[in-house]
């Protein structure tokens, strides 16, 4: 994907979510928008922080892990480190949690309210090294727009 592609997608995110204050509705539509526009994915969705663990939220894809401990797997590591995780080959990631054995690469971006992590956006692909720096920057911008639409 190109930076221009992500700029266009970001405008769509803002148009879709402007004025929406229900978090579940916004996350569901955000997941659907990414699933419809990004290629070579097999799962996209959210895990939300509840009682010191990540709990499955709105998503597009196959059945998923319901709960992930903080610090475990790619998603739990993203929360623990409070930073995006871009993994070229999840099978090389120590502690990877295989919710879908078809997933090979993963991009996980923390989702925040007032600077505090409240969950993660998790995007999985069946292809090795699917996500590059442009994808990471583009998706981080999309998540920032989602946060701005929901939390001002």
Automatic annotation (TrEMBL):
GO molecular function: L-methionine-(R)-S-oxide reductase activity
Domain of life per record: Bacteria
Domain GAF, first and last residues per copy: 44-144
One cellular-component annotation, GO: cytosol
Family stated for the protein in its record: Belongs to the free Met sulfoxide reductase family.
Name the record gives this protein: GAF
Organism of provenance: Shewanella piezotolerans (strain WP3 / JCM 13877)
